[in-house]
């Protein structure tokens, strides 16, 4: 018997068991290996049969738990997530930008989660036309650092199954998932405060229009919160903004030079990115100062090279792979439409990674 006929036999038999009541709602379905033995077919054949049953809403697969008969009577509807066959990661920038380790790891999280659920995954460049592919059974994860309101409103009107990743635009009522940069900024600054630093410089990136984007704005808010909890007033002279489209070492170098020119220079610097931290460390060393003995430096991103720097860079890890995986789970399993009755949203909490570029100040020095 041909493979495509065999899969139909498996499909029909399992479907009959469900419709006859032999398999009840929420009953577990045997594994692919077990079903292959039961029906004396290949696992590929079983996989195809299960995919068809899933597409019809008869069964549902839960990550790390297994496959179960879907309780359609309880829900009253067939879950819409069962019909997704492909996930597109929609970007509005060049492909070279996606090679940054943050995006690379995030894409890895999306790709792996799609693979686990037998869903195809593909990149889609929307930077020119702001058009999405006209395909059925698709979902879209949007990397949108800037807003094109007209395009977003059009996609909403088309009821596109989409979620923003890394940036949020709540006023558009589009589901989103972001890294909690507010907590990240707080963790970095609180770490320095706990080491008795009281004059802490911060180097932020502003865009070509001269304003901070969401991620750096939230990191600054976290910085200010940590200072306030130690009853330290924010000093505008310690807040340096440098212009850039993408993070570069030279931006940190430039920002650090401004901080070093201060009569009362900082004893620690929160560079808000690893690239800027590399530049800041270079500027400090060129001034005959030591890291961390004279000035502690903390980055943000936990780039692969940061652990091998001398000194090893203290930084904040954003968990981008978890971000990508969670975004995929949300758009596959939790998306309920764009009706504005409550935005589907989530945040990934970053982790502080302590290495040797930060050290404590003596209490008497901190009191000076």
Automatic annotation (TrEMBL):
Q: Which PANTHER family match?
A: HTH-TYPE TRANSCRIPTIONAL REGULATOR GALS, LACI-RELATED TRANSCRIPTIONAL REPRESSOR
What's in the keyword line of the UniProt record?
DNA-binding, Transcription, Transcription regulation
Output the Gene3D superfamilies linked to this UniProt entry: 3.40.50.2300, Winged helix-like DNA-binding domain superfamily/Winged helix DNA-binding domain
Top-rank taxon, per record: Bacteria
Do the record's keywords include Transcription regulation? yes
Q: InterPro entries, from UniProt?
A: LacI/GalR-like_sensor, Peripla_BP_I, Tscrpt_reg_HTH_GntR, WH-like_DNA-bd_sf, WH_DNA-bd_sf
Protein name (record):
HTH gntR-type domain-containing protein
GO-annotated molecular function:
DNA-binding transcription factor activity; transcription cis-regulatory region binding
Decide whether keyword DNA-binding is in the record: yes
Q: Which Pfam families match?
A: GntR (PF00392), Peripla_BP_3 (PF13377)
């Amino acid at each position: 018997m041909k493979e495509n006929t065999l899969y139909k036999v498996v499909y029909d038999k399992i479907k009959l068991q469900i419709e006859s009541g032999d398999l009840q709602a929420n009953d577990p379905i045997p594994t692919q290996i077990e079903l292959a033995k039961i029906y004396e077919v290949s696992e590929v054949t079983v996989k195809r049969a299960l995919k068809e049953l899933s597409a019809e809403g008869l069964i549902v697969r839960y990550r790390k738990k297994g496959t179960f008969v879907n309780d359609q009577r309880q829900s009253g509807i067939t879950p819409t997530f069962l019909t997704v066959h492909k996930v597109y990661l929609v970007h509005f920038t060049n492909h070279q930008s996606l090679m940054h380790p943050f995006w690379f790891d995030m894409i890895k999280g999306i790709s792996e989660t799609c693979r686990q659920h037998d869903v195809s995954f593909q990149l889609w460049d929307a930077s020119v036309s702001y058009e999405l592919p006209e395909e059925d059974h698709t979902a879209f994860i949007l990397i949108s650092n800037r807003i094109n309101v007209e395009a977003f409103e059009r996609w909403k009107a088309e009821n596109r199954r989409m979620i923003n990743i890394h940036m949020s635009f709540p006023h558009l009522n589009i589901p989103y998932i972001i890294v909690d940069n507010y907590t990240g900024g707080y963790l970095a600054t609180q770490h320095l405060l706990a080491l008795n630093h009281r004059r802490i410089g911060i180097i932020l990136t502003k865009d070509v229009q001269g304003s901070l984007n969401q991620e750096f704005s939230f990191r600054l808010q976290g910085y200010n919160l940590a200072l306030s909890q130690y009853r330290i007033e924010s000093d505008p002279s310690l807040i340096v903004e440098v212009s850039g489209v993408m993070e570069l070492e030279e931006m940190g170098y430039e920002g650090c030079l401004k901080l070093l020119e201060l009569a009362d220079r900082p004893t620690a610097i929160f560079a808000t990115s690893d690239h800027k931290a590399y530049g800041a460390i270079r500027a400090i060393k060129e001034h005959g100062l030591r890291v961390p003995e004279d000035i502690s430096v903390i980055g943000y991103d936990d780039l692969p090279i940061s652990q091998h720097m001398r000194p090893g860079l203290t930084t904040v890890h954003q968990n981008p792979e978890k971000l990508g995986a969670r975004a995929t789970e949300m758009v596959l399993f939790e998306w309920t439409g764009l009706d504005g009755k409550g935005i589907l949203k989530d945040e990934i909490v970053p982790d502080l990674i302590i290495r040797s570029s930060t050290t404590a100040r003596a209490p008497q020095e901190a009191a000076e």
